[in-house]
Amino acid sequence: MKFLKSHWSNIVFLLIILLLIIPQTRKPLQVGLNRLISFSPSEVSEENRNTLFDYNWQLKKIDGNPVNFKEAKGEVVILNLWATWCPPCIAEMPSFQSLYDDYGDRVNFYFVSAEEADKLEKFLEKKEYTFPVLQPSSSIPELLDSNSLPTTYVLSRKGEIVIEKTGAADWNSSSFRKLLDELLAEQP
Predict the structure, then answer these.
(1) Which domains are present in the chain?
(2) Distance CA 36, CA 78 (A)
(3) pLDDT, tens only, 12-67
(4) If exposure means fewest CB atoms within 10 Å of the residue's CB, which of 36, 68, 97, 149 is most exposed?
């Protein structure tokens, strides 16, 4: 008992390391930690915003039907680049689902993953997510190209990149919802 009292912190540390080594516990632990440290995304200052002019990007729904990103021009857009194997991506999905439930009819949501359709369908079904998931059919516009997952862009009606966030975030925060409401109120 004396040994446990004097070495409890080392035992906890070793237990955490062991949990991170075991594949079945590593991913849920990483997702939980990402949710714990996720904050509301920061807005890009107006003087540092880039504007997207090239909306030419072919996508397809996971059922194979084509979608052209040009449909998003003049609309408020949330574009999320993600994967089912990415713990930070998985960590932010519940906040996106809540946001989609409330803003899905007013904001254009694009959740884009290069994974196979059947893998995406299984993931969405298991988690009970209803937001639209798309796959790229052509190269992404250069301004939206990222080497990191997840990466999320929020575009104004004018095509300004208002938010460019790499890593997990809390997209269902009151401050982000306020920003979305402001973007929706702007004229194109």
Answers:
(1) 2-34 (no CATH), 38-185 (3.40.30.10)
(2) 22
(3) 777 777 666 777 777 776 766 666 666 688 899 999 999 999 999 999 999 999 99
(4) 36
